[in-house]
Amino acid sequence: MISASPISSIIGIKIELKRANDGKCRACGAVNAVVDEGVAPHAASLRCADCGHHRGWLPQVIVDGLLETTRLFGRPTAVIRHPAKFAASTGANAASSSRANKQNGTKMPVSADDYKEIYGGRFLKAGDLNGETIRCRVTDVNAEEIHQKDGTKERKMIATLSGAPKSELVLNHTNSGALAAMYGTDPNKWIGAIVDAFTVPTSMGEGIRIKIVKNPKKPDPISSGPQPHDPDLNDEVPFN
């Protein structure tokens, strides 16, 4: 992975969000967003270029691409319109540099964390928690068709979690039911909920369960995140 140089070097870069699942800004309808500071575990965020409304979290691969491009060629001045292709292109250049390093005898250190990042998949899984209970905040909820092992697709609820090792969790019936029992069946009202994520044995192996934290005694580890029922932070998640 490209070393995380100061995020300040890419703050303010504009990205156009015109894909169907990005949507327009709910506050003003604009499609351009600017890169802004992130909240752990997210490296960076996106805010509307016109009104400053929060538009979602920027994936690490896009952040790395922007950082590397800025390092090599300076700050992009034009609006970036195809961020996924941009990241793929930057990744290819990084891979080329990696091959050059290998030919020059430079050995790149690797670890178990590298294996998890490359092969672990997009969604939060039981193994990512390492047997620990992780306190998170729900920052977004959306529905998406997920590929099943038999090749079919099934529509699932996806919760975006701030404070988890991976930011997206596929909500099974048990976990979505826990949120619905507390906040109602409108998933938009789940945003801002504080939950403890932990592992439990299931018939399919280790699984993740969430427990709603009603009145946390310890300080919220993500205190800058959205609160339940806050309409200003029902954000789109711009990239998959």
Describe the protein.
By secondary structure, the protein is an alpha+beta fold. Helix content is 24%, strand content 27%. The chain is built from five helices and nine strands. It has a five-stranded antiparallel beta sheet.
How does the SSE layout of this entry go?
Layout: E1 14-16, E2 32-37, E3 44-48, E4 54-58, H1 60-73, H2 83-103, H3 112-119, H4 126-129, E5 134-147, E6 153-162, E7 168-171, H5 173-183, E8 194-202, E9 205-212
Antiparallel strand pairs: 1-2, 2-3, 3-4, 5-6, 5-8, 6-7, 8-9
Strand-pairing-aware structural class = alpha+beta
DSSP strand count: 9
Helix content percent band: 10-25%
Which fold name fills CATH's third level, the topology of the largest domain?
OB fold (Dihydrolipoamide Acetyltransferase, E2P)
Strand order of the largest sheet: 7-6-5-8-9
Order of helices and strands: EEEEHHHHEEEHEE
State the low-pLDDT regions, or none.
1-5, 219-240
Main sheet? 5 strands, antiparallel
Query: How many H/I helices?
Result: 5
What characteristics describe this protein?
alpha+beta, OB fold (Dihydrolipoamide Acetyltransferase, E2P)
Task: Provide a concise account of the structure shown.
With 240 residues, the chain is an alpha+beta fold. The protein is built from 5 helices and 9 strands; from the N terminus they run ββββααααβββαββ. A hairpin with a 5-residue loop joins strand 3 and strand 4.
